[in-house]
Specification:
With about 130 residues, the chain is an alpha+beta fold. It has one domain: Roll (Thiol Ester Dehydrase, Chain A), CATH 3.10.129.10. The chain is built from three helices and five strands. A five-stranded antiparallel β-sheet has the order 1-3-4-5-2.
């Protein structure tokens, strides 16, 4: 599975010498943006009048990450609900799982800022992104 490679820098770390827990959120966000980039480049969501809003993130920290590590952030699955989508994401160092997360977001209609129903068109877009990033 393809993922977003990130070089861990010293400024990502806290006084204990490992990546600060808040940085995991940034790494996960970088991975999501990379995952979505082809759709963003084609302005698919803009043409549909949709905005992304993260409404919940649940992270499990499994192994520490240190300066100099090269990590890979992946979007591994999408779960489609009535008005939200849940991304399953992971952060790996070599083949070691360092963290995994579930990120729930909604798509808002740009005009009224109300969550849209996740219909077949949206599901097809995300399934295509999963296949492209596989």
């Amino acid at each position: 599975m393809i993922g977003t490679q990130i070089q861990v820098r010293g400024y990502h770390c806290d006084a204990y010498g490992h990546v600060n827990n808040a940085r995991y959120l940034e790494f996960l966000e970088e991975g999501r943006w990379s995952f979505l980039q082809s759709a963003v480049d084609k302005e698919i969501f803009n043409e549909l009048g949709l905005l992304f809003v993260v409404v919940n993130i649940s992270i499990r920290f499994r192994k520490p990450i240190f300066p100099g590590d090269e990590i890979v952030v992946r979007v591994e699955n999408c779960e489609y609900r009535r008005k939200s989508i849940v991304f399953s994401q992971s952060i790996h160092r070599d083949d070691l799982l360092c963290s995994d997360a579930e990120v729930t977001f909604v798509l808002l209609n740009k005009e009224d800022n109300k969550a849209v129903t996740i219909d077949n068109q949206i599901i097809e877009i995300f399934q295509s992104l999963l296949e492209t990033n596989a």
